[in-house]
Description:
Strand content: 25-35%
Low-confidence stretches: none
Structural class: alpha/beta
Radius of gyration: 22 Å
Distance between the termini: 90 Å
Order of helices and strands: HEEEEEEEEH
Oligomer: single chain
Helix content: 10-25%
Number of strands: 8
Amino acid sequence: MASHTTEVITGGLVVAAAAGFLVYANQFGGLAAPSGGYPLTASFRSAEGITVGTDVRLAGVKVGSVTAMALNPSTFRAETTISVDGAIELPDDTALVVSSEGLLGGNYLELLPGGSAFNYEPGAEIMDTESSVSLIQLLLKFVTGSGDDSAQ
């Protein structure tokens, strides 16, 4: 009978530890739903390396994430919806750029605020976007010497 009690206590501790890990992952792992954020949309020619859940950063600080992505069949562009922290008021001439953390790092969306006196309303579209640059295409241009500069 003592062994059954030990097994029940051990099982309870394992379940409690698993629940603790889930709570930790939810709070600190970026799995929690954005609270108090507002949506903005943007259209990219190429959103390579960006997926739902990708960070949206301002000055290197995470201020939101990508919440939806879809291909617009009429324009063949990647329509992206992001959620930005409600405490951040972005000027309506803010740019959204696909940036890279380095050669081996992942991509993220970077907000580059402008100087307008007017701010984006929830659901507004960011018109100034810059797509990702393919590292392979850049290397091929460098190796082959083909570029706009060489055609003189």
